[in-house]
Amino acid sequence: MITAWMGIVLGFGGIILGQILEGGEMKQLMQPTAETTVLDVGVDEVSHGEGGGQSGCTTHNFLEERYPWPERLTALGLHDGARFRMRYPRIAYVQGDACALPFPDASFDVVHSNAVIEHVGGRERQAVFVREALRVGRRVFLTTPNRWFPVEVHTRLPLVHWLPESLAGRAYDVVGKSWARDNHLLGPADFRSLFPGAVEIRNLGMTLVAIT
Hints:
The protein has 212 residues and is of the alpha/beta class. It has seven helices and nine strands.
């Protein structure tokens, strides 16, 4: 029963993600056009609809699947990009570090990143991630799972991420998800504190969106 409930919750989360990226928040708030240059930070070799990664996520590279002007997209990831280029031949791919972006200041109209910031390290690294996004983009659109949502979306475990870090880590070990120790989740106040200037934080329940 609990497993079924979590499946419903996370399935609804996928609908929210689609609304954010495809029709709703990004298009309405950032208003991209065929001339808008967009950098997507943190793309994966495993693409949308393909199972992969330790969490079994199937929503990687959602923006690349749905964005109407792929020639205006630049994607950045840690991998060599061979599989990515095969699937998205119209999108420029750059291998690089999200905390040391290999681009000059103000290179892009929009820097987009979906659920990457919680994977780059602790608060210091997360602050660097935000500063780099702000440096190379005239505007940013960043999302991350909400720490205060009762299901931890990477592991699909309820409430464990609300425990003290040491106890949560032990729980992840017990269920064979030790990799989740490296996730650093953010609540709305945490997310806002990473931005040195004005930012709008939208709380969609399971997902937080930061917009400048």
